[in-house]
């Protein structure tokens, strides 16, 4: 670990410490680290519009307790990391989505997932890490796929959660789930944003496992920490302008575990199966009853699967 980095206590948990890491490419990432410095590192890469706190503290702690050092961070354009100001023309999202589903190339986004993967590669370098284990969720899983194909020397094993390789003709998200992710809140005051987040959690989350009180507290905490809807749109455009990762998947030579929820209606399970099929030797695990989230009920089982997988 780079000894020049200055850490302070996380305001959210007792077992994590936070810092800022300048990547040298105009982007600064906000990072939290926890666990024994001597233990192998698991770097957690989050999804579209999701601050690092979407990695539940309970999930991080259970991996720390199983012998790992955990790093979570805000991707560019979200949370407390750098925001990318873009002056270019407005893009027609619906048109881009249609082309994306058909496997046609899109251009014009301020950045794409290859740029976001480059951020993670630079983060590994700047933090002075040796080979890391990676867990990527949703869009974070797409970033991990790119990183694993381009920089195999930086990576030990890979874990992927409810993600996709965006190959053509995979089933699209169910409309209700997609609209909850990219739709606009009814009002832009704190309560309006929190109600919008709550609706999102309930729509994409695991049916019957979303704790309403916890969800409200989480939504408020995230809003008060950072609210930047432009970043969510730009990350969505990054996905649409990256396209299929199938050819990259076929280059990956790492031990890979793909986990997907049977009740995921944002990225149906066939997306995760497509990733596992494309990566040589990848294992696929379908979690019965799980949606597009990481509720406490499933964490002991999921964290155990990853902890075992990374011991390979």
Automatic annotation (TrEMBL):
InterPro entries: AB_hydrolase, AB_hydrolase_1, AB_hydrolase_fold. GO terms for biological process: glycerolipid catabolic process. GO terms for molecular function: triacylglycerol lipase activity. Keywords: Hydrolase. Coiled coil: none annotated. It comes from the Bacteria. Residues 40-294 form the AB hydrolase-1 domain. This is Hydrolase.
